[in-house]
Write a structure and sequence with these properties.
Its main location: membrane. The chain is α+β, with helices and mostly antiparallel strands. Helix content is about 20%, strand content about 35%. It has a single domain (about 30-170), classed as Calycin beta-barrel core domain (Lipocalin), CATH 2.40.128. It contains three helices and ten strands; from the N terminus they run ααβββββββββαβ.
Length: about 180
């Protein structure tokens, strides 16, 4: 009986420790105008998924479909600016229609990955996409380059919500000037 009590106490302590160690959900922005958010976003930096390792000239494009879902096209060149062009086409689904800032991103049915718009400039020129797990994050902009001041500001936001910013990598972007 004594062993059972100690075992139960250890299980309760470990579960409480697990609760204390988990981080609260990352709050999204208060509202996203979906049509305004659509279009091309250059990936400035990220904590990359295995698919994104070595990405150059990465662009995420969004297009609102008639059914309200968001056709996403993610393109990049693998390992160099002239490397193999890779294209992925997940579908986004707005999951909170009050804010439009919480999405599910579906690469493979039926799994929808957490996708949270946690920062968005008033002019919709820069954004941060995060996940509650704090495993991946994306800094994106409407232009392929942003100021170092803006980049540092966004890194600060990412760190404040609990990410290890030492894992954030800049995505090489090099485009012809017009």
């Amino acid at each position: 009986m004594q062993i059972l009590k100690h075992g139960l106490a250890i299980i309760v302590a470990l579960s409480l420790f697990g609760c204390q160690a988990s981080k609260p959900p990352i709050a999204p922005v208060s509202f996203v105008d979906i049509p305004k958010f659509m279009g091309d976003w250059y990936v400035i930096a990220n904590i990359p998924t295995f698919v994104e390792e070595g990405a150059h000239n990465a662009i995420e494009s969004y297009k609102l479909k008639e059914d309200g879902s968001i056709q996403t096209t993610f393109t990049f060149h693998q390992d160099s600016f002239d490397g193999e062009l890779k294209t992925y086409k997940p579908v986004g689904y707005v999951e909170d229609h009050t804010t439009n800032a919480l999405w599910g991103m579906q690469f493979i049915w039926p799994i929808k990955a957490d996708y949270r718009i946690i920062y968005l400039t008033d002019d919709y020129s820069q954004t941060i996409i995060a996940r509650n797990k704090r495993d991946y994050v994306w800094i994106m902009a409407r232009t392929p380059h942003i100021s170092d001041e803006d980049y540092q500001h966004m890194l600060g936001i990412i760190e404040k919500v609990g990410y290890d910013i030492s894992k954030v990598k800049r995505v090489p972007q090099k485009w012809p000037t017009k």
